[in-house]
Amino acid sequence: MAPRRPKGAGAFPKPVESPAPTPPDPDTLYAALDLGTNSCRMLIAQPKGNQFHVIDSFSKSVQLGQGLEGTGRLSRSAMGRTLGAMRVCTQKLRRHGVTRMRLVATEACRRARNGARFLGQIRQETGLNLEIIPPEEEARLAVISCAPLVSTKTEQLLVVDIGGGSTELVWIDLTKVPRADRPRAIMRLHAGFGADPGPFPAAKVVDWISVPLGVATLRDQFSDVDDDSARFALMSWFFEENLAEFTPYDAVQAKEGFQIIGTSGTVTTVAASHLGLRRYDRNKVDGLRMTSDQIDAVIREYLTLGPKGRRSDPRIGADRQALIMSGAAILQALMRIWPTDRLTVADRGLREGLLYAQMSADGVLEEGAY
After folding, report:
1. Is 265 in contact with 320 (CB distance < 8 Å)?
2. Is the pLDDT score of 292 beyond 60?
3. Which domains does the chain have, with CATH numbers?
4. Which of 335, 307, 312 is nearest to 323 (CA)?
5. Do 150 and 130 form a contact (C-beta atoms < 8 A)?
6. 37-86 pLDDT per residue, tens
7. Backbone angles phi, psi at 217, to 5 degrees
8. With a threshold of 0.85, does the pTM exceed it?
9. Strand partners for 346
10. N or C: which end of the chain has fewer CB within 10 A?
């Protein structure tokens, strides 16, 4: 007698679907967009404790400043690439229903004769309302983005933001701030470098400077020099010459209690090369500490590789190889002036600063240690 076939045998199993993730409440979301000389970057995030959780992001190299050094104007092709990126950002903002946002443009639009007109075109074609921010605000936003990376042992802090069209440096004295409160004191600068901190101990901004030389503009300045090593040396010397007016605590070279935080694609690329990463990993790079000697070793390796070797090096990437040596020239100049064993690598910048500033102003970030 043949065995009886169980009821339901041979039927396809019913799939058990996991519930779709609940989309975040649009009223809790914030957006920040940074249109720079080389890249367009955007973050959409919601507050989470004393930090934020990223919901969506966008980053694209648009090379808005291409040709600006020679003509003083944004080119038609550069504006076309940027408009395409802006349309993608518009779609993301609408998809998430974001209403709280800050959208800024920096050095390329500051310098270009048609910069303001171009932002009007963006507003007309995409509905995005970008504002050109002054260098001091750009420097301030870079500083507060790095607040979680400030060591409680730091007494003198130098924050360096190497951009595409400019480089901002801010020197901050934290000696009057209790150790545990030092990162939070940096965050309180969102109201301005000279703002009243109220009853809280204040971080003192000793000096700051915005040098109109970034990775793209410095490269363009010396594009006529054919020899790779000579071009690098000239770029580094020229950048150092432009720092002549920035001399806070010039005689102080003590490494104890001194911290440099570097935020830029240059610094993160050098860090990834130092770690030997074949694929970039933000978790390994953000917050990494490097010595002057370690940075110098990576730069010497870049020079040994030459243009062709750098182009094929996966740690640098084809997109960044054209800019890495001008950025490295800036970094080496800084290390000559302020040698340190505590350069902290920051994979963060204006977008994060814009988000922290908005959330801090609205009081939606919790108090507490980072």
Report:
1. yes
2. yes
3. 26-133 (3.30.420.40), 136-351 (3.30.420.150)
4. 307
5. no
6. 999 999 999 999 888 999 999 999 999 999 998 899 999 999 999 999 99
7. -70, -35
8. yes
9. 263
10. N
Token digits of residue 130: 């970008």
How much is the pLDDT for 4? Answer: 56
CB 61 within 8 Å of CB 38: yes
pLDDT tens figures, 142-197: 999 999 999 999 999 999 999 999 999 999 999 999 999 999 999 888 878 877 77
**Count of alpha carbons within 13 Å of 346, Cβ hemisphere only?**
30
Residues 234-280: tens digit of each pLDDT: 999 999 999 988 877 655 556 788 999 999 999 999 999 999 998 88
* Rounded CA separation 223/217 (Å): 10
Give me the amino acid identity at 242.
N
DSSP 150: -
All residues at 6 or more sequence positions from 9 whose CB lies less than 8 Å from its CB, including other chains: none
Three-state secondary structure of 78-120:
HHHHHHHHHHHHHHHHHHHCCCEEEEEECHHHHHCCCHHHHHH
Question: Beta partners for 41?
Answer: 34, 59
The position carrying tokens 């291409």 is: 66
Characterise 63 by phi-psi region: left (phi > 0), alpha (psi -120 to 50), beta (else). left
Output the CA–CA distances (angstroms, integers) from residue 64 to 15, 187, 343, in the order listed: 49, 30, 30
What percentage of the chain carries pLDDT values higher than 90? 75
